[in-house]
Amino acid sequence: MGLYIGDKMMKYEEWSKLAIKVSKASLWMLHFCTGCGAIEMPPVMTSRYDMERFGIAPMATPRQADVLLITGYLTVKTLRRVIQVYEQMQSPKYVIAFGSCTINGGMYWDSYNTIKHLEKYIPVDVYITGCMPRPEGIINAFIKLMELIDEGKARGWEKYQKYYDKYKENQRRVFNFEIEGENEEY
Amino acid sequence: MDVMGIAIKVALLTAYAVIGTCVGLLFMGIGRKIIARVHNRVGPPFYQNFIDVAKLLSKKTNISHGWIFDLALLFSISGILLTLLFLPIGGVQLLSMEGDAFLVLYLLAIPALGFALGAGASGNPNAGVGVMRALVMMLSYELPFIITLIALMIYYDTTSLATIVRMQSINGVKSWAITMPPFMLAAFAADMALQGMLMEQPFDIPVAPHEIASGPMVEFGGKYLGSLMLYKAIALVAETTLFVDLFLGGGVVAHGNFAFVINFIVWLALIFLLFILSILIAASFPRFRIEQAFGFYWKYEAIIAAISLIWVYILVIK
């Protein structure tokens, strides 16, 4: 596969390098706002911090988005929706997890109905620490994601395809708890 | 026509299509920058839309919802490309026929119907609501637009776009339709109709991202969304060019051997000014509800257009 430019054939590697360059400069974001993190998003999008100058734009539906931004804790019930949304997105797709709650449960560490480690259920490319992270932190995470894409390290979506069974098993375990009342997490 | 002639014609048509797409994408990027400046933001670089389209076209997975979904996009893009090729650009019209002013009106409806087909095939309820709104919007803005078009046809006594442009370019700027008082009213009505055609802000009811999750586009992703962005870019150029052809003499100011270059630049400047006007209106007004937009077009715009029609009719009879 290749494309003729002038009289020399463009190699597939060069072609995919170009694809990486453009996908890095235009990250469309779907913000899945749960919990308190949603309040940090308006300043990031509007004139104070203005994420659009990096080519990051909020999108309305998962089909159109490249980045899934999960702000805050996820209950088991919400996790179902997040997985549905993640599987509807078109690859290459990336996940940014926002706040302590997605890393180790945060202040909900001993709650019976929130998940503690988001990484077990969907692949996360970048974490933002803090409770709450500042708007600068969010923009910083996007810049970090751009660097990772450039280095070819943001391969969460490939990991999800490769270890699909493992992810599904983890998801099923936490969903079964909802029905059978048995929680291995807690 | 010999083979060489056909080849040159095909090359010219392709060149027009490519130029139209590039100009549209460039304008969309500049429009985003201007809206950002109005919001007191920095805004994306002006070439951002080229990057967006390239990214969408290089996506690795693309979900289709059946063959109607695939064909509907081709339907929209080919419809709008055909419209662009039928319009005089800088006084040069590549495809033409008797009564092409009517033909362009019909061709402008094809992309919307293609859109409706694709959205219907995706089976998403938001898309259904969006398509209903898009068709109601089309019904609303076409009434004042057609009345202004009839006024122009009566005044210039022709149904050919090329003739309308030629009659307006006899004395340069002084013979443009917009310099005459009845056509000032008509141009105002047509500009508001243009705002609806471009789906810019008071009239972005069909795609309203915060209400119905971007309406007909809700299930489009990857390459499909990239093609839709290309469609939008071409539509922007085609619709502003139609206005320039009808009221601003198609941008024709010079005659002679190399006049085409000057006319082309003037055409580019005029559609850019029209687009900026539409972007500034979009940046300063919130969204109408669908019945408000319908009322606005059929009550006020249609009456303004009708007044200009009667005025022109009286002028012609005398």
Largest interface: A-B, 26 and 31 residues
Q: Main sheet of chain A, how many strands, which sense, barrel?
A: 5 strands, parallel
Average the pLDDT over all residues of chain A and give the rounded result: 83
Radius of gyration of chain A: 18 Å
Low-confidence regions of chain A? none
- The geometry of chain A reads as globular
> How many domains would you count in the coordinates of chain A?
1
Q: Could you please say which CATH topology of chain A applies here?
A: Rossmann fold
In total, the number of domains of chain B comes to 1
Query: H/E order of the elements of chain A?
Result: EEHEHEEHEHEHHH
| % residues in beta strands of chain B | under 5%
**Alpha-carbon distance between the termini of chain A?**
51 Å
Question: Which tags fit this structure?
Answer:
heterodimer; A: 186 residues; alpha/beta; five-stranded parallel sheet; two-stranded antiparallel sheet; B: 318 residues; mainly alpha; 11 helices; globular
Structure description:
The complex is a heterodimer of chains A (186) and B (318). The N and C termini of chain A lie far apart (51 Å). A five-stranded parallel β-sheet of chain A has the order 4-3-5-6-7. Chain A contains seven helices and seven strands, in the order E-E-H-E-H-E-E-H-E-H-E-H-H-H. Chain A has one domain: Rossmann fold. Chain A is 41% helix and 15% strand. By secondary structure, chain B is mostly helical. Chain B has one domain. Helix content of chain B is 72%, strand content 0%. Chain B has eleven helices and no strands. In chain B, helix 5 packs antiparallel against helix 7, helix 5 packs parallel to helix 11 and helix 7 packs antiparallel against helix 9. Chain B is globular and about 60 Å long. The model of chain B has no long low-confidence stretch (mean pLDDT 86). The chains are: A alpha/beta (186), B mainly alpha (318). Chains A and B meet through helix 1 of A and helix 2 of B.
